[in-house]
Amino acid sequence: MTMVRFAFIVHPITPKDIARKHPAAKLMPDAAIEAMMRTMKPSVASRITGVESITGAKTEGIFIGLPLTPTMFLEDPLELVYDKIVACCDIAADEGCQIIGLGAFTSVVGDGGVTVASRSKIAVTTGNSYTVATAIEGTLLACQQVGLTTAGATLAVVGATGAIGRTCAICLAPAFAKTLLVGRDQARTEAVAAQVARGEATTDMHRVREADVIVTVTSSDTAVIQPEDLKPGSIVCDVARPRDVSVRVAKERPDVLVIEGGVVSVPGDVDFGLDFGFPPKTAYACMSETMMLALDGRAESFTLGKDVTVEQVEETQRLARKHGFHLSGFRSFEKAVDQTTIERVRAARTALV
Predict the structure, then answer these.
(1) pLDDT digits (tens, 9 = 90+) for 83-116
(2) CA–CA dist 328, 244 (Å, integer)
(3) What whole-number distance in Å separates Cα of residue 324 and Cα of residue 123?
(4) How would DSSP label each residue in 272-319?
(5) Is the sign of the CA dihedral 348, 351, 352, 353 positive or negative?
(6) Span 138-165, pLDDT tens digits
(7) Which domains does the chain have, with CATH numbers?
């Protein structure tokens, strides 16, 4: 089988992130950095080698850097943003790639990749299907490790009307006694609740304190969950980028477990050529979906739009097993979660009984 090559779009989460490549940015105000970025074009950030399936299939690819921050994605004209994302697709095509993955805000802006795919010369995927799969797997594994019995527990899904949140809720809710669907629009949130076992819709973020387990996946550019919002001994799976959970939680709430959704071990002797804050040979789930499709020879637009189906989630789980992708422990605020943290949260839950 001919190798299918892939590309993946990355972008700075904060303006100061660009200082890694342009050190002078450390001394500039954020508004000036973003003004500078508007004059910049996407470019190849690194070359990715060594991705090898347990079947023996191989792939290689590139990271393409897009000089836009989350604020710019939300505030700049949508057509201008589309043009810059499509420019990334053009670079990928010129580099011989057959599929490109949309990272972070590139996967949620506008219509979730549909327009980009219609204008791209190559296949496009958001990676949201495998992101959902790993969020579900990671959440249930965390429950086991801290001794939380889901059958008597309350789940909250924040950002429940989004593509990832809705399917996470549908898949996880049957395991829980009650599921709170948290959204910004009551009518849209109620529509999701109608599809969820024992689901209840709300627009009140403060109600997440009722939850034993929270899956949060909004497209906000600021933290939506603060230390005072969390029940002692609770588990939070934060799938969003930028994070939905405030960094204050790490400092002020040692009694809760916050895990980042979708930290995946990639098969082979992979070298990403770029430090995006993960341990060697691990990646986000959205990146992994792009790679596993390439390994499977499937240069197709797999996950697009605002909906992710249960069938798509199950297909990425099958592909992960076939090619050797799997969850690589837990990470929280850029650090590995150790057993001491697990035991501390377990103790907090025991104290509630």
Answers:
(1) 999 999 999 999 999 999 998 889 989 999 999 9
(2) 21
(3) 23
(4) -SS--SSPTTEEEHHHHHHHHHHHTT--S--S-SS---HHHHHHHHHH
(5) positive
(6) 999 999 999 999 999 999 999 999 888 9
(7) 6-129+264-326 (no CATH), 132-262+330-352 (3.40.50.720)
